[in-house]
Amino acid sequence: MVRVVTGDVGPFKLLRLDDDEIRYFESLWLIPEGITYNAYLLPTREGWALFDAWKVGYGKEFIEALSSVVEPSKIRYLVIHHMEPDHSGTVKALLEENPGIEVLGHPMTKSMLESFYGLTPKFRVVRDGEELRVGEYTLKFIYAPWLHWPETIFTYVKEARALLTCDAFGAYSIPSKVFDDELGEEELERYRFWTRKYMATVIGHYLPFVGKAIKKVKDLGLDIGMILPSHGLVWRRPSEIIKYYERWSAGESVSGVKKVVVVYGSMYGFVEAAVKEAIKSLQGEGVLHVTYRFVDDHRDEMSDLMGDLINASGIILGTATYEAGIHPLMKFVVDLMIEKIPKNKSVLIITNYGWGGVAGKLLKKTLEGAGYRVHSVIEFRAGHLEKNKEAIREAVKSFIKSL
């Protein structure tokens, strides 16, 4: 069942819904770890400002949580950073309680409100760089397009030293605490994976815009003491998550340690046996590696795979030729890589065939055409692994050195 968390975040009041009922985010990405939807209230001398809301379907719960902190009639402003329904889905319920709220957002937000929910509220367009004085606070609006829709904005509240970022700097999971500096290192390390997984699956298509947004914020010279995203933890160590976001969006490891992701599909065990030889070589060389497999009795999750691929140094892909092409599931993996994952990766391909080798050539052409570096292709006929074991071992050693 869902759970509501409220509390103080500096001068803000947090309204957080912990959603452990969701199975597939965007009806696509498996997230057994769940997710939170964060909204923030700011009390001022001129009334209350609300930043974002909760997912569609939780209107009743949202109004109840909101009312436990402040009467909806006392809210003067609603800032919508991003119109996706996991953040705007309870706005209709709010405006039914208080239709006098002035809604602030990107120029595109107004038409989306009408289209999504049939709403025509009192609306004020905020411009990039515009500042609005609300009581004792100064709100500065910053356009952050394609993180991850075109109408996304951030808000910097100067006197609170707080940057509200909606999807950016968010993560999957339901953290046990509110702030990053309240977690132990083990839980924080797990949370970093869920942050990478979120970045890859949700923002992955728009990764170049992450660096652009961070540069834009840095160039403004803002004094940021907290980052308040709409999913997951509040960051009281903002420089840490900014550092991770910069490096991950560029496809780099923060630690500088080489990491190889091994991902393969095997119908009858021939590819799996060959990939296991490659894994032995990785182990022998002491290389950090993680394996994802798609076989007849097991499938790892694509969403987790994306989270590990984003900061990999290299990738080992294993697949069979299937009907004169690439096995469909592995083709899907490659398509997702191209769509979501930075291209600064080196790839080693291991593939086999029954009557004619095709998959290796197709994979090489596809990956190089997308901008990846294909280190080498090891292709062999089913049943001929023994003749190719040494070639696999040598290829892996050479591959590791090239990373």
Distinctive features:
403 residues; alpha/beta; Metallo-beta-lactamase, Chain A; Rossmann fold; 2 domains; 6-stranded mixed sheet
Which bin fits the share of residues in helices? 25-40%
Compute the number of structural domains: 2
Proportion of residues in extended strands = 25-35%
* Average pLDDT number: 96
CATH superfamily of the largest domain: Ribonuclease Z/Hydroxyacylglutathione hydrolase-like
Strand order in the largest sheet: 1-2-5-6-7-8-9
The name of the CATH topology of the largest domain is Metallo-beta-lactamase, Chain A
Structural class: alpha/beta
Number of extended strands: 20
CATH top level label of the largest domain:
Alpha Beta
Question: Which descriptor suits the 3D outline?
Answer: elongated
The DSSP helix count reads: 12
Describe this entry's structure for a reader.
Helix content is 34%, strand content 28%. The protein is of the alpha/beta class. It folds into two domains: 3-249, Ribonuclease Z/Hydroxyacylglutathione hydrolase-like (Metallo-beta-lactamase, Chain A); 259-402, Flavodoxin domain (Rossmann fold), CATH 3.40.50. The chain has a seven-stranded mixed β-sheet. The chain has a six-stranded mixed β-sheet with strand order 17-16-15-18-19-20, sandwiched between helices. A five-stranded mixed β-sheet has the order 10-11-12-13-14, with no helix packed on it. Helix 1 packs across helix 3 (91-97), helix 5 crosses helix 9 and helix 6 (208-219) runs antiparallel to helix 7. The longest helix is centred in the middle third of the chain and has 19 residues, at 185-203. The protein is elongated and about 80 Å long.
